[in-house]
Amino acid sequence: MTKNEADQKAELSQEGLAEDLARADLYGLLASLFFQPPDQIMLDQIVASGKQEGGQTGEAPLEDVWMNLMGAAKNSKALDWKVEYDNSFLGVGKPNVFLYGSFYMAGHLHEKPLLEIRRSLQQFGLEASDSISETEDHIAALFEVMRYLIAGEDVEVSNLTNQRVFFNDHIRPWFDDLCDAIDADQEIHLYKSVSALTREFLAVEGQSFDMI
Known about the structure:
The protein is mostly helical. It is built from ten helices and no strands. α2 crosses α3 and α7 runs antiparallel to α8. The radius of gyration is 18 Å and the shape is globular. About 6% of the residues have low confidence.
């Protein structure tokens, strides 16, 4: 291998690492937004980020939806997000929109899809924290797993193969249905920008995994 070839390989490796870290960061942000409403610090960080996050994959549609989220964060307060989150995803009794994969894949909570996710987590050596009441099929929990599979240090677990399998098995079958439910709810306004970012980002992820 010539010096130029070695330099090109190193450059491609660095680019791939930067892209993976950006993917992991975006999964982490979406996990945070779906786990609980953002506080004012997070909203300010989103506004201050400009096009940085949205341009991380080089995809113009992703830039557009990121800018929409930035606009929603800029023109609202943390209390607005909390009220909408509580009314839409918590509510009294049955929420307006469920954030659990089992509901969309099986029609009910705590069904077979949840058991299959738990089996996958066992294979990775992962388990849910006792301090978290949400089940493992919550969209935020699944996004956190994806972040770990991208950015974790154990290459036996955190690798592209596991990312593809976990995404295709546990996220891909239902994320569009979740986004459709959010988009169809007339009482949801702010989280429509989160839905749009989620849909676009995961579509890009799916296309990338299909190329493997």
